[in-house]
Design brief:
- It is a single chain.
- The chain is of the alpha+beta class.
- The protein contains four helices and six strands.
- The radius of gyration is 15 Å and the shape is globular.
- Helices cover 25% and strands 33% of the residues.
- The chain has a single domain, classed as Aminopeptidase.
- Strand 2 and strand 3 form a beta hairpin.
Amino acid sequence: MAFCRGVTPAEHVFALDLTGLHESGVEFFVAEHRNQIVGMGALRPLNDESAEIKSMHVLSEARGLGVGRSILQALIDLATSWGCRSVYLETGTMKAFEPARRLYRAYGFVSCDPFDGYEQTSSNMFMRLDIPQDDTPV
């Protein structure tokens, strides 16, 4: 939250706080390195076919270690296990968020319209990943 609040106008910070992370259905992941929590991310269901990545962050000193990739893959894997067809996220447009945007694009996320009641501002953008479905009959 300190990172988001430090680089984003207060009215445009949508990261989940502790209360939000305890909402029903929200799954929260942490990553540890040398007995220190260095990253986190959450997934919350939007409906039966989609979920939203929330509050993903990696400490600056842990960047480049694969922490962000590991958390993002775990969140995508969880969404897939839920039967989701799409995963959405909202992220900042400021320079401080460029590493996150690069990571999301590397995983196949593309820009999309606002979702789930979000409003477009100069401080945010929206991305979506369509999850391939195995529609092979059993």
